[in-house]
Amino acid sequence: MTTQRLSSLAVAAVLAVLTACSTPDASTGSATRANVPAGDDSASAVVAQVNGEAITRAELEEEAAAPLARLRQEEYDIRRQVLETLIAERLVEAAARDQGISTEELLRQNVEQAVPSPPPAQLEGIYARNEARFAGQTREQAYARIVELLEERSVAAKRREFERALREKSEVTIFLDPPRIAVDIPEDAVGTGPENAPVTIVEFTDYQCPYCHRAQDVIDRLLEQYEGKVRLVHRDFPLENHPGAVPAARAARCAAEQGRFWDYHRSLMKEEGSLDRDDLARRAARLKLDTGEFAECLASDRHLETIRAELDLGSELGVTGTPAYFINGRMVSGARPFSAFSEIIDAELAGD
To answer: Pick from 165, 166, 164, 161: which is nearest to 112 by CA?
Structure first.
């Protein structure tokens, strides 16, 4: 694998970490497979003994289910990223052959020459904002470094644009199957959109997670663009390092008792607040809820068991941070751009 491909994968991994809130003890390394001896693979098979007490394969599989689910998704993501690079390379090679030139010349003509030099005003602005970082360098040396970085970024963006254009004119079929995780959806689940929609998105969110707030605009856009084709199901996944997450989740369910879950949900996602009892009550008042009923509900613990059950469910499915989504069972982690969702939804609608 080339250094360029490795760099792309490293960047993708970093971006995944930087677009989600995670639990304090969430592993950032690769999951490891259990070293299980070959032999009987029945649920009752003994895989280890501790002072004569057996550990069965069923126990092992239950405990390993979540990290293995994450591992399968990570493996797929890596394969898909490498596959996309290979596809782009083949498209560039084919275009070069059609024109009777080398791939290097094709890229020089369509990518490198198409990138304009940054204007002096841009260089001056970047230098002024980051002058301390260029300590020990002359202004000319600093400008040269800035130009180098800007051109690298512009060339990479232009190449992606060029490769997309080639792909749109070509016939590309992908047979790599993504991993899917079965997510149970009870009849009383909080959802919006038709129950028989061809695409179901199950979201696990935390009301105190800034990345969940950032993702809400994307989710709203998806629901609008795919109206009638997508069902969204909400699941709470309050992280232990966010003390306001559980009270906010309970408040949203109290609003649901008055038929206003999604209005209250969007209030929590899109309007800043302390998420203390007064803040939660003010949100209810702005939505013209019956504040007495709301206060009584919020003071009770009647939704706490459901929230805890959803947190456990997410953990069993391999969720370690928020937001996390399952699109027809295909896992997407973090506050991803609209295109990351629409690509999967379009493929699901097309039956790919």
So the answer is: 161
pLDDT higher than 80, residue 9: no
The closest of 242, 237, 248 to 275, measured between CA atoms, is 248
- Residues 294-341: tens digit of each pLDDT: 999 999 999 999 999 999 999 989 898 999 999 999 999 999 999 999
The DSSP code for 176 is -
Q: Which of 259, 261, 262, 256 is nearest to 302 (CA)?
A: 256
In the chain, domain spans: 61-179, 191-350
For the ranges 91-95, 134-138, 149-153, the maximum mean pLDDT occurs at 91-95
pLDDT, one tens digit per residue, over 242-286 is: 999 999 999 999 999 999 999 999 999 999 999 999 999 999 999
Of 163, 131, 32, 193, residue with least CA distance to 202 = 193
How far apart are alpha carbons 342 and 331 in whole angstroms?
A: 14
What integer pLDDT is reported at residue 63 of this predicted model? 86
In the numeric block, the tokens 């069923």 are attached to 58
- Output DSSP code: residue 109: I
| Alpha carbon distance 46, 76 (integer Å) | 30
The helix (H) or strand (E) run that includes residue 155 is helix 139-168
Please state at what angle helix 277-286 crosses helix 245-256, rounded to 10 degrees: 30
Amino acid at position 116, single letter? P
Token pair in block for residue 231? 């069902």
Mean pLDDT score across all residues of the chain: 88
Do the Cβ atoms of 192 and 231 come closer than 8 Å?
A: yes
Tell me the CATH number for domain 191-350.
3.40.30.10
Rounded Cα–Cα distance for residues 282 and 276 (Å): 10
Q: What span, in angstroms and rounded, lies between the C-alpha atoms of 93 and 331?
A: 33
Structure tokens at 279: 């803040």
The residue ranges of DSSP E strands in 67-222, in sequence order, are 191-192, 199-205
Tens digit of pLDDT for each residue in 47-82?
999 999 999 999 998 888 878 888 888 899 899 999
Query: 345 exposed, middle or buried (CB, 10 Å; 0-12, 13-18, 19+)?
Result: buried
